[in-house]
Amino acid sequence: MRFSDVALDACTFPSILKACGLLKDLDYGTEMHGLAVKCGFVSNVFVVNSLVSMYSKCDDFHGARVLFDRMTEKEDVVSWNSMISAYSSNGKSLEALSLFREMQMEGVFMNSYTVVGVLQACQDPYFLRLGMEIHGALLKSGWEIEVYGTNALLVMYSRCGNIGDALRMFRGMNEKDNVSWNSMLSGFVQNELFAEAISFFCEVLDMGHHIDEVSVISIISALGRLGNLFNGMEVHACAIKHAFDSDLQVGNTIIDMYAKCGSVNYMAQVFDKMPEKDMISWTTVIAGNAQNGCYSEALELFRGALKEGMKVDAMMIGSALLACSSLRCASHVRQIHCYILRQGLLDLVLENTIVDSYGECTEIDYASRMFEKIENKDVVSWTSMISCYVHKGFANEALELFYRMGEAGIEPDMIAMVSVISACASLSALKKGKEIHAFLTRKGFSLEGSVVSSLVDMYAHCGCVNNSYRLFNLVQNKDLILWTSMINASGMHGDGKEAINFFHKMLDAGLKPDHITFLALLHACSHSGLIEEGRRYLGLMRSEYKLEPWPEHYVCLVDLLARAKCLTEAYNFVNNMTIEPTAAVWCALLGACRVHSDNELGEIVANKLLKLDPDNPGNYVLASNVFASKGRWKDVDDVRMRMRTRGLKKNPACSWIEVGNKVHAFMVRDKSHPQSEEIYSKLTKITERLEWEGYVAETKFVLHNVQEEEKKKMLYGHSERLAITFGLIETPAGQPIQITKNLRVCGDCHVFTKLVSKFFERKIIVRDSNRFHHFEGGVCSCGDFW
DNA sequence: GTAGGGTTAG
To answer: Does residue A422 approach strand B to less than 7 Å at its CB?
Structure first.
């Protein structure tokens, strides 16, 4: 109907504007506004109140406020009320409260609507005091607070975390309606008191109270978050019985519950049968699939949503991106990225998620380009990029970015700190690590949780296991992760007995070990050659703790058996594993074959390994190692050929040492260091001295078929020797030299380092890709097995 | 003109 065709009076407007508000139809509402102006009704207080209300329901606060401010006579409390509740029901508490104050100054008396609106603005611990003052004033004034008001008080207390006060409110209410019961129920759920929520829900049922869609939504959300599938299905059945299941929001919550309980099938069934679906239904089912490892299904559904012409928002895209990054599929990420740009949907959350997704797909360049483009980088943006660098092994870049973040004036939080600490750990950058430890103390971070575990880990990786221990002792409430870090720290440094000690102390403290704890323990056993203990703990893990070993646990045991020269037993063990051996398991066995020069078995294992994981250059190096050590150059060439045809390159060896405030890195035969000349001349002198003492280069560790002299030259240019030499030049006598290497130490360098530690009277600590070696007086803590 | 509910993230 065209209103302009009919004679209108002012009474028509409030109801039509109310409809606009309910439908959130701002366009039509604005048209009506224009019409009201044309008809000269805007001086009518009822019409203006309705207009204010319409604008606020359509989330146009500015429009509402402009109208409100233009009102010449604001004696009508209704005008104030609609503006206040417009603000408070949309989370604009400050605006609502300042308007309330203004209203009091104008001398307008409030009514029960005002009370509800203002209490709604106090649903935040920050405004609780004010809410309580209002509560007190109400009690003192002897006003009879009706059920709307008491409900609003109840919700205020529960949203502020004062569930006890909320419950007292609830129990003291003379009159309760469905909203009261539901508010109490959702109060428990929002405060994560799930057990209380369940027994409260039972109380509702026992008392014979009506439940409605809202009650079901709250309790199902609680059961989902508990992962309580059994009761979840019960309530689902109950919802069907009451015919609530056709409700859109009930359906959405049920989908989420099944997703959180890991029941992907039920989730899909409910989703398929929904009579209508909205954006949230699609987002929930996409996220549900992604969280349960069904990444392709998640992406398929995302495509489905687009095909159906469903509106897409940042949250839905965020879930789809999560699926892409789990699939490590950069081209999917790029597709979605382009889609976002085309649709103009890019916001900060999505920008951060995209950085993260590219990072997960090892597209560091894309991640970094995206990161640099973000205009208002927040702490999440910086941390995403930092941890992306850390995960992909670019620890230096991570640290650099951390300093840039400080310059940009962004305060790091716990998650950022954990990333940065682990960057120091992977660099063995003790000085930087200590600096960051001091920074944490200065900034008043409490040393607990993941921060302290990562510090313990960092000190261990930097060779300062004593600091790890000291820090560990300072922590009052030691959690499983902290104990595991400490077990790992002892193990890395070859102190298996100590690791076992920690393990038993942990059990005494009443903690239950998990897969990772056992991994640390078995690593410790393997680094210290504790064969019997290793066997025993693997058994204990299965029998006592019902933990099925991962391939990584088998790797440790293979390492152990191989160390004891029990190569055949290790081989049989691998063949009898309950799960399919992974490349890492064969890799461990092959390493053992090399150490014990068992070529027959080595050849079998090498073939299995190269078949299983043909894209890892390290495997080819290891295989050619086995052949080279027996001078089987034809086989070596063959392996190298296979590697080349696949376009693989050996990971270049690199060693580094922290001197002053800098990390100095050396590649094989590196001549790029400014002090290069000095380093090489010193290295020659060292080698001559050692040769004089009887050192003979073991050229079998050179994997190339070249002349003996050439082989020697190659060995002498190994990166760890350059780093050690630099350490001898730059650090005072008596001070331990600590270096880190990205690959395992070669056999000849191991001998070389032992001799340097003896004849140059220096403790040398080498961290290789696997463990720590402490060299002192010509002996290494690894017992020549690594 | 008033109160209670669902999805995402380093």
So the answer is: no
